[in-house]
Amino acid sequence: MRWWTKFLKGSSHKGHYHRRYEDRYRDEPRQSVDDSSGFDKDEIECAIALSLSVEDQKGKKVIEEDSESEQSEEDHQTHQSEEDYQTHQSQEDYQTHQPEEDEKDVNAQLEEDEQLAKAIQESLSVEPPPQARYDSGNVVPPYAFFFPSSYRICAGCNTEIGQGRFLSCLDSVWHPDCFRCDACNLPISDYEFSMSGNRHYHKSCYRNQHHPKCDVCNNFIPTNSSGLIEYKVHPFWKQKYCPSHERDGTPRCCCCERMEPRDTRYLSLDDGRKLCLECLDSAIVDTLECQPLYFEIREFYEGLNMKVEQEIPLLLVERTALNEAMEGEKNGHHHLPETRGLCLSEEQTVTTVSRRPRNGAEQRSIDIITESYRLSRRCEVTAILILYGLPRLLTGSILAHEMMHAWLRLKGYPNLRPDVEEGICQVLAHMWLDSEIYSSSGNEGASSSSSSSSSPPPSSKKGQQSDFEKTLGEFFKHQIESDESPAYGEGFRVGNQAVLKYGLRTTLDHIRMTGNFPV
């Protein structure tokens, strides 16, 4: 089965990106007159001087009025001449009318100067937005706010910011407490933050939520030499892991193909295979334990009107014994790189797993007891061999496959091409898995008109299937369906289409006559 290799471009995967910003609420000094670039310095000094001169002129007017009033009284008492009287009269008129006009002008000028000074002071006290730095190193120069503070509306709470501290980022302004991480809901005060869509995060929160973690070592998957996040993923279980685990000797379950996590221990079999604890729950280890399942498979074939009359021995063996038997077999096709079942037609002596001793709860390996078994040729098939230690559904699918080999030989089918023979055998294995997964009773596919003279012995592995065992059955079906080998994979797909289109019996009759699947 082909594993997928995934590449992610850091946190920019699927539109994620980084932004930097400066938060101006960190004890930054306000902008002074000397730092202002929006006004000319001479104009500011001129406005201030004008304001001071008006104040000074106002004080002088009051002093002149008092001194002239005293002088006019002395002149009126001392001088009685007509000329002095006319002069004194003109001074009174000046004091009566002229100050009123001057006072109006001065007040208007003062009010205008105060408004000008207030506007200048307000514009100088408004803080410009912070600079926005991007990962590429480009810097956007700051610009000054010349509009009143009431125009600053927080993008978080949608209320007025006023003269308080604020942040400017993402083309909006925010209260410092309103710009929060979407994961932890705490304010973001860092100069850098990450985004996913329109959501912003602390860089650490983004990493925890979006950066892939290895399911084996439970660490963040590191980047490769190109700066990309590269990891492997199982096409069925979706288990993600670092590519280095394929080279560091990390064990893989021989049945479900999942890698062993660091916090879990897989069971070791005598022939070096590793078995996960979930697969161990339904594993069939010795020949005696497998006999009830063998009986179910025979009933399954009988329900398809394909009864096998001969009593064919079924033996569970180790990997070495299976390989030795395969070398001594002249006929048959074998699924490399590992064969887990074999239909024999030659006389041989094989070593079978007769039984296993009881292991403690903390046992990390399975000990087995073997014995030699001499096969004699009574028909075209001498025995069916199955690798021991496999889960019940996997053992059953292999047994259904090998039983089809036996049925073809016993029914006198000619030597078939590998893609035809292995393909139709995989079709029967797939059909049995379907019957086990989707049947309400588990094994009602057998015919009620069974002519067997003996009742099946009780099975320690048969019963209510767990959720994992059902998923495991789907995985074994997925293995058959996605096999890329010409014989087992392509042969199954062509044969399955023929069975779906014409039915099993018509397909078998066509194979007998032509040696090919019907098109």
Brief descriptors of the model:
three-stranded antiparallel beta sheet, 19 strands, elongated, 11 helices, metal-binding, alpha+beta
Give a topology summary.
Layout: E1 4-8, E2 17-21, H1 41-78, H2 82-125, E3 132-133, E4 139-140, E5 167-169, E6 172-174, E7 192-196, E8 199-201, H3 203-210, E9 229-233, E10 240-241, E11 267-268, E12 274-275, H4 277-280, E13 283-284, H5 287-303, E14 314-317, H6 319-328, E15 341-344, E16 349-355, E17 369-374, E18 383-387, E19 390-391, H7 392-410, H8 418-438, H9 467-482, H10 486-502, H11 504-514
Parallel strand pairs: 14-18
Antiparallel strand pairs: 1-9, 2-3, 2-7, 3-4, 5-6, 7-8, 9-10, 11-12, 13-19, 15-18, 16-17
Helix pairs in contact: 1-2, 5-7, 7-8, 8-9, 8-10, 10-11
Organism: Populus euphratica
Protein name: Protein DA1-related 1 isoform X2
GO molecular function: catalytic activity, acting on a protein; hydrolase activity; metal ion binding; ubiquitin binding
